[in-house]
Specification:
Structural class: alpha/beta
Shape: globular
Order of helices and strands: EEEHEEEHHHEHEHEEH
Radius of gyration: 18 Å
Helix content: 25-40%
Number of strands: 10
Distance between the termini: 27 Å
Length: 255
């Protein structure tokens, strides 16, 4: 589903200096996998996700989705950002259907699909509510339904639950795994939380400090039907410990 090879990203500052955000990043993601990306702040995780989404141009290297090079926004990709970015004057269903409207493809099929994903994220009956009437977790569910509404093969998620309280975040993790199982989508999720990265993933990509490189890729040897009590299991703890071993005493990742 995703193939990345020799990916580099360099930013130019206003002073004319170069900031190397990503260097030599290479990995592949199979269809149906759930991949999480974890690393310190500023290591290029969100930059990587934006390149995969076609929002940001790479400096060099190659990136392809389903065998097709990525050089701009791709209909095969749905994106969920850190904040749900809902329009407050539009109802839940209107927010979900907005991308279809913008592409001039709003049909009865899209409405049926929106209703399907609204039910899948647990918001059936909230179609006519406004964002201000929803909790933070419910707003993020709307963002997930909106990203899925055009039926992409790949779902990219940039720290989607970072602003939620711990209990809501745990419930959202369980809901996301259920949604992935029901939809069959390939998912790549960026997070700062090591336990969250391990709990959700089939494999965890660990990134180094800037310039971001792949420091490690770990398979998570747990059943796909995850339960919260697995967090206390030995296999879970081993993966968490190995990821943390990349961190030095200053809290950054060793290369």
């Amino acid at each position: 589903m995703i193939t990345v090879s020799g990916l580099n990203k360099t930013y130019q500052t206003r002073e004319g200096n170069e900031i190397h955000a990503l260097h030599g990043v290479a990995f592949a993601v199979e269809p149906g996998e759930f991949i999480t990306v974890v690393g310190p702040s500023g290591c290029g995780k969100s930059t990587l996700l934006k390149i995969l989404a076609g929002i940001l141009r790479r400096t060099s290297g190659s990136v392809s989705i389903a065998g097709r090079p990525i050089d701009g926004p791709n209909h095969e990709v749905g994106v969920v950002f850190q904040a749900p970015v809902l329009l407050p004057w539009r109802t839940v269903i209107q927010n979900i259907l907005m991308p279809s409207e913008l592409h001039g493809k709003l049909t009865s099929v899209h409405r049926e699909r929106a209703d399907k994903y609204l039910a899948m994220v647990g918001l059936e009956g909230f179609e006519d509510k406004y964002p201000g009437e929803l909790s933070g977790g419910m707003q993020q569910r709307v963002g997930i339904a909106r990203a899925l509404c055009h039926d992409p093969n790949l779902l990219l998620m940039d720290e989607p639950f970072g602003a939620l309280d711990a209990m809501t975040r745990e419930m959202m993790n369980l809901d996301l795994l259920r949604i992935r199982a029901e939809s069959g989508k390939t998912v790549l999720l960026v997070t700062h939380s090591i336990p969250e990265a391990v709990f959700l993933a089939d494999r965890v990509i660990v990134m180094s400090p800037r310039p971001g490189r792949i420091a490690d890729v770990l398979a998570v040897d747990l059943p796909r039907e995850r339960k919260l009590e697995m967090i206390n299991s030995e296999p879970f703890g081993k993966v968490v410990t190995r990821i943390r071993s990349h961190f030095n005493s200053h809290g950054t990742l060793d290369s």
